[in-house]
Amino acid sequence: MPDVSSAYSAQFGAVLARASGAIKLRIAASCCLLFLAATTVYAGSLSSSELIKNARQYDGKTVTYAGEAIGEVMARGGFAWINVNDGKNAIGIWLPKELVKDIAYTGSYASRGDGVEVSGVFHRACLEHGGDLDIHALALRKVTSGEGVGRGLSGYKRNLAFVLLGVLCLVLILRQLKIKQIQK
Amino acid sequence: MILKPGIDDIKIIGYYLGKIILSLGFTMLLAIVVGMAFGELDPVMDFVIGMEAALISGLVLTKLCFTQKDLNWMQGMIVVSLSWLAAMVLGAIPLYLSGHWNSYLDACFDAMSGFATTGLTLVQDLDHLSFAHNFWRHLIMFIGGQGIVIIALSFFVRGFSGAFKMYVSEGRDERVLPNVIHTARFIWLVSIVYLILGTTALGIAGILGGLKPVNAFFHGACLFMAAFDTGGFAPQSQNILYYHSLPLEIITIMIMVLGALNFKLHYHIWMGNRKEILKDIETVTFFFTATITFAIVAAGLIPTGTYPKAVMLFRKGFYQLISGHTGTGFMTIYADQFINEWSHLALVSVICAMALGGAVCSTTGAIKMLRIGIIFKAFKEDLKRIILPERAVVIEKFHHIKTVFLTDKQVRSALLITLAYLVLYGLGSLVGMFFGYPFLDSLFESTSAAANVGLSCGITNAGMPDALKITYIVQMWAGRLEFMSIFTLIGFLVVSIRGR
After folding, report:
1. What is the pLDDT of residues B137-146, one digit of tens each?
2. ipTM value of the model?
3. Among B202, B382, B452, B482, which is least packed, fewest CB within 10 Å?
4. Which of B62, B97, B237, B461 is the mutation pick for testing A, counting most A CBs within 10 A?
5. Contact A164 B56 (CB under 8 A)
6. Nearest CA among B109, B95, B104, B80 for reference residue B46
7. Chain A residues whose beta carbon lies within 8 Å of the beta carbon of residue B129
8. Among A33-42, A108-117, B490-499, which stretch is predicted with the lowest mean pLDDT?
9. pLDDT, tens digit, for every residue of B214-257?
10. Tell me: the pLDDT tens digits for B52-105?
């Protein structure tokens, strides 16, 4: 298996250059720990099912994981959480705030989220985050751009609603007629 | 000779069933309002269709079966058991129309899971579900938690003596207030007050956790409904893990425990009688069972190094345990992690906690604390009888709002319901094993369904066999109504065929 790629190191260096002093220190410290911990990098993107099923095997290793950014980007100080769904499960990604600036869309009813590829250290039970299964990202690459999803009204549903409304009105009219008959 | 039910029986059942269906139809208005607020036109149409279907069915039933006669016990029980089936069928309409469920059976599964406050789900692509549908998923938990009949009693029924029969048939053993309609309204008052407080707390936790204010309060309201009604649905596919937030987890633990308390106890606490919480047999039993089962979970997780730090043990071990014990089903781990990473000892302990449940007259399912407490007291009494001299008079009593002397009738009733639950857990496990799932997985999922919990070890998914989906639906239904209504319905159907 190859070592941490130079591309990720370069991207991470750029992130570090943009960060403020205190954040720089935290990023640098985290970075050193992560690099020490990450003895193996798994080439190619791993699926969420593979990671969850074989969590002990990948624990502490640098992995690549890709999927759609869903929900919201949740900023926490100089870092942020994003959740990335590969179609089977969503996995939490903890990353420096600078890395999320390219994310324009996150998946929801109204939009399809950006497709992202994350490289980082996988944790089966993260010591820093109360045992969460997560990935501490070293680099994030936007693979596809998300977009707003226009959802028009379905003609079939509209017609069905009108038919049922007609039936409902008919039932109400018959009911009223019956009541009047009884009153007479 | 067994008498066949007459046309009068069917008319009375149909009339009250129609009334409950009508009230259920009107609740869809809330989802329509949410959909309109978020500009979701297509989802709004799903609820318009669902509401129209409910109103048509309700109006036709109340018209065809119009009667001024009151319900007897048998009719009350049948009305309740059929109401829950009708709620499932009608509540599933907007879910199915959304296109996020593979089949109508899957939508029915989630509707029953919601109404029965279970939390097992077959939804597809939840992260792209509309606000309106997400709100409906959680609202049906709120409705089901208080009881479908409670809604009808609270808002749509002016008062009749059959109300108490329907109230009891819905798996509630106790009245908070002498009048059952006042009891129903009190249950709603408690729930609405907690809804406001809980949503605010969860909303603030969400904002602090990085959510936008609108989303934070929407998620807060949904999570509150799922937590207080010990349901377990959440707006995102990762359930509570989505938020990565300790404060939010702590708040949900508090709400889950509140939801697992007896509404009668809530009433006494509200009236200033706070010492009740320390004396009541249910809270005392809950404290002991939660402590013991957590100790076993910890014993199962620590040696394997699954969660090496105390905070991890709390956020993963304790959270899943208390979620299971209160019958909620919120998860901060993935379903597969239960099987892949948890030891059998820890899993069995969670299964036991799920099987026990919370308080009677609460929103939880399962055997419930009062029955466990009574059975324990009965064992203690029998043990005393053996140890003490034959002439000694052995009396056992317990405190449940007031001091009560233990009677054989109470013990018999508690043991019968406990036995019925154990059989239900076992039967579901057998069906699971029949379809090739391992014993422990099957037992876990079956207990979760029958006890209306919602924790999953991975069996529940859209690809599981239809027969297993139907088995879990029946388990959720029977578990929520505590059997008697279901047995009465079965008896009614048998007599309809075989009687004279």
Report:
1. 999 999 888 7
2. 0.88
3. B382
4. B237
5. yes
6. B95
7. 109
8. A33-42
9. 999 999 999 999 999 999 999 999 999 999 999 999 999 999 99
10. 999 999 999 988 888 878 778 888 888 888 999 999 999 999 999 999 999 999
Q: Spell out which residues of chain A touch residue B46, defining contact as CB-CB under 8 Å.
A: 157
> Among partner residues A72, A130, A158, which is closest to B246 by beta-carbon distance?
A130
CB contact under 8 A, A125 and B52: no
Q: What is d(CA B46, CA A157) in angstroms, rounded to the nearest whole number?
A: 7
Q: What is the pLDDT of residue A14?
A: 47
A6-148: CATH superfamily? Nucleic acid-binding proteins (2.40.50.140)
Helix (H) or strand (E) holding A123: strand A115-123
Answer for the pair B28, B49: CB distance below 8 angstroms, yes or no: no
Q: Is a pLDDT exceeding 60 seen at residue B470?
A: yes
Secondary structure letter of residue A44 according to DSSP: E
Q: Which residues in chain A are closer than 8 Å to B127, comparing Cβ atoms?
A: 70-71, 85, 90, 107-108
Question: What percent of chain B is helix, strand and coil (3-state, nearest 5)?
Answer: 70, 0, 30
Query: Looking at the complex, does the CB of residue B53 fall below 8 Å from at least one CB of chain A?
Result: yes
Q: Are B404 and B376 in contact (CB under 8 A)?
A: no
In angstroms, rounded to a whole number, what is the distance separating the alpha carbons of residues B20 and B91? 13
Given this model, what pLDDT does residue B392 score?
Answer: 86
Mutate to test the interface with B, among A49, A134, A157 (most CBs of B within 10 A): A157
**From CA B109, how far away is CA B99, in angstroms rounded?**
15
Contact between chains at A83 and B40 (C-beta distance less than 8 A): no
Q: In chain A, what residues touch B56 (CB-CB under 8 Å)? A: 164, 167-168, 171
> What's the confidence (pLDDT) of residue B163?
66
Domain ranges of chain B: 1-172
Kindly tell me if the per-residue pLDDT of B278 is higher than 80.
yes
For A164, the 3-state DSSP assignment is helix
- Domain locations in chain A? 6-148, 154-184
Cα separation of B496 and B483, whole Å?
A: 20
Interface contact B42, partner A, CB < 8 A: yes
Residue B118 phi, psi (nearest 5): -90, -65
Name the closest residue on chain B to residue A71, using Cα atoms. Answer: B127
Q: Residue B312 CB: number of other CB atoms within 10 A? A: 19
Long-range CB pairs of B291-295, under 8 A, 24+ apart, other chains included:
B293/B321, B293/B325, B293/B349, B293/B350, B293/B352, B293/B353, B293/B356, B294/B318, B294/B321, B294/B322, B294/B349
Tell whether B246 is within 8 A of chain A (Cβ): yes
Token pair, residue B131, equals 């606000």
Query: What CA–CA distances, in Å, run from B465 to B32, B335, B448, B453, B468?
Result: 33, 18, 17, 21, 5
Q: B112 CB contacts (<8 Å, ≥6 apart)?
A: B84, B88, B118, B473, B476, B477
Q: Residue B342: name the closest of B299, B378, B290 by CA.
A: B299
Cβ neighbours for B287, distance < 8 A, ≥ 6 positions apart: none
Predicted pLDDT at B449: 96
- pLDDT exceeds 80 at position B443: yes
Query: CA–CA separation, A71 vs B206, rounded Å?
Result: 13
- Which residue from A minimizes the CA distance to B331? A132
Q: Is residue A41's pLDDT more than 50?
A: no
Contact B25, B54 (CB under 8 A): yes
Contact present, B332 and B451 (Cβ < 8 Å): no
Residues B169-209 pLDDT 10s: 666 666 666 677 777 778 888 888 999 999 999 999 999 99
- Rounded to a whole number of angstroms, the distance from the CA of B130 to the nearest CA of chain A is 5
